[in-house]
Every structure is written in C-alpha cells, then in structure tokens.
Amino acid sequence: MAGKPSIVFAHGLWADGSCFHRLIPTLQAEGHEVFASQHGLDSLESDVACVNFTLDHVPGPIVLVGHSYGGTLITKAGIHDRVGALVYIAALAPDEDETSQAQQDQFTRTPVFDHVEVADGRVWLKASGIPDFCGDLPEAEQKLLLATGAVPDAELFNQQATGTAWRTKPSWCIVATHDRTVNPELERHAAKRMGAKTYEVASSHVPMLSHPDVVLDVIREAARSLGGQG
C-alpha cells in the first residue's frame, strides 16, 4: 500500500461506519488503507476524539471523508497533521463561530425533521422519515438503515469544538440535489464558502449508497491530489 493515501470516513446521524460499505472494498482493492471512525454521537468532543484516534492509527497523507454531521467532524478533526484533503458528502461544514445547528438554521428546514422524536435525551428518526433520509434506496435497505443507525444526543448540534480545517486544507464537496435531510442550498453555500471543488448528483441524503461511483470518483480525485496513484 506504500505510496497510496489513506482514506478515513466519518459518519453522520442515524448511521454508522457501515454506511460506507459500497466504497470501502473498492478503495481497499485499489491499494488504499481505509478505516471508518465508529463514534457514538454522544457529544461533539467525544466524536471528534474518535475520528482523531482513527487518524492516529493510519499513515498519512489521509483523505478525510465526512457524510452529513460527519462534515462537522472532519471540519474539526481535519486540522490533524496527517490530513491532506477533505471530502464532504451532503455534509455540514460549520465555521469556527457556528454550531451545526446554527449553520442549519440559516436555511429552510428540511422535511426529515417532521419525522423525529426526542426520547431519553436522544433524537430518534421515525420510520415515516426514512424516505426523506434515503428514499432512493430499495425499501429493504431503507429499513436496514433505520434499524442499524446510531441515535444522536439531543444537544449534539448545539455543541462547539475548535478547528476549521477547510480554511487550510483543500476540499471537495458532493451536493445531493434531492436531499431532504440537509438542505442542498446549505451544501452549495458551504462548498462556495470553503472554495471547494464541487460536484452535484441527483441523490437523496446518502449518495455514497445510491451513487457510489460518483462518490468514489471524487475521493479518487482528492487522493490523486496528494500524490501516488490515487
């Protein structure tokens, strides 16, 4: 694997590291060392720590990839000195003075949030909301995501941590134009603000599952920018 950048993934809400399963085998076969951070969505601080100890485990340079709230995590953890490039998939990317919630509040509320409930201090996605989360996947896969996704702490999006990696690291953004979970206009605004190379795909909130070839091509481009064969 020498000469190939490593790839580290950070998942978002109502997901876990397995949401990247359509990307990981291909990237491994192409010679990359690949890991997905497994974080509990218990606090921003602890989630960033999980990403950081994953970064500590793999050789640099690293392409750090975040989906949804995972974009907040790579924004914070991406200041790690092994990270050479950032890839945002339908993701948040708050600035230093923003929380994840503050960034979302600047844009029209998306339909998925009509289908959540707070219980025991966690935010649960109802079955009625799964079409807004991943409606372009087969029904059986939608049900699997609902059953296996990690459930976030209710205050997670109001928490803050230091670090704005996209200010100093080259970035790529994938905008999901049919996203009903993170507003596509937020995704476009974030990409423009960070000066990212941006691609749009006619996808729900989970293009890594519904359009994996598009996402793979963007990750490959980011990897090539760091040297080696990408």
TrEMBL record:
Keyword Hydrolase (UniProt): yes
InterPro entries: AB_hydrolase_1, AB_hydrolase_fold, Sec-Metab_Biosynth_Hydrolase
SUPFAM superfamilies in alphabetical order: alpha/beta-Hydrolases
Keyword Hydrolase: yes
Gene3D superfamilies, A to Z: alpha/beta hydrolase
UniProt xrefs under Pfam families: Abhydrolase_6
Keyword line: Hydrolase
GO molecular function, one term: hydrolase activity
Every AB hydrolase-1 domain range: 7-217
Protein name: Alpha/beta hydrolase
Native source organism of the sequence: Streptomyces tabacisoli
